[in-house]
């Protein structure tokens, strides 16, 4: 955040930078979810072809489990490859997943260790079985659940914007970490 504030502080301000950091994790998570789903489907189809060719008797659930295990084993190298494709500014990735972000701010964020760690964390979250879940939070001007979110800078009840998402073990699972909202 400090790097963005140094570079853009006067023209964007702290709130905009904070919102872009949030957008970074949300966009990375969405990208990872979609890529993971695509890879799981492709892996399942490849395993099914191999199982059929080798005349191995196997049920659908076993094939899906094997594909998930392979995807999890390759998590580090896969996240490195995906991260490299984002850093090379593949326009389709940027325009599809990071379109809500200011391009100048995104370029600075992409060059940081925060972005790398954020992306790798998101990838590890989505290859879990079941995948971990990010709660993108309450709507602007609405009340928020204090069991799921905590306030940032002041104690009020109406959301100005979300600072950080809540993290769950999986969708409808146990809350691992409360999210953070700026309130008024």
From TrEMBL:
Going by the entry's taxonomy, the superkingdom of the source organism is recorded as Eukaryota
Q: Where is the Mitochondria-eating protein C-terminal domain?
A: 18-181
Q: What is this protein called?
A: Mitochondria-eating protein C-terminal domain-containing protein
Tell me the lineage of the source organism: Eukaryota, Metazoa, Spiralia, Lophotrochozoa, Mollusca
């Amino acid at each position: 955040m400090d790097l963005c504030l140094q570079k853009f502080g006067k023209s964007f301000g702290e709130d905009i930078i904070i919102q872009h950091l949030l957008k970074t994790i949300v966009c990375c998570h969405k990208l990872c979810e979609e890529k993971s789903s695509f890879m799981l489907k492709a892996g399942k189809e490849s395993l099914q072809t191999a199982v059929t060719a080798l005349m191995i008797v196997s049920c659908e659930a076993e094939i899906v489990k094997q594909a998930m295990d392979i995807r999890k084993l390759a998590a580090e190298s896969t996240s490195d490859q995906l991260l490299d494709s984002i850093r090379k500014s593949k326009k389709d990735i940027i325009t599809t997943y990071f379109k809500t972000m200011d391009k100048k701010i995104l370029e600075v964020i992409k060059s940081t260790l925060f972005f790398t760690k954020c992306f790798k964390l998101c990838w590890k979250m989505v290859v879990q079985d079941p995948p971990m879940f990010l709660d993108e939070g309450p709507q602007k001007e609405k009340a928020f659940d204090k069991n799921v979110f905590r306030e940032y800078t002041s104690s009020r009840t109406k959301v100005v914007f979300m600072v950080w998402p809540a993290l769950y073990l999986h969708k409808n699972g146990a809350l691992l970490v409360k999210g953070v909202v700026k309130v008024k």
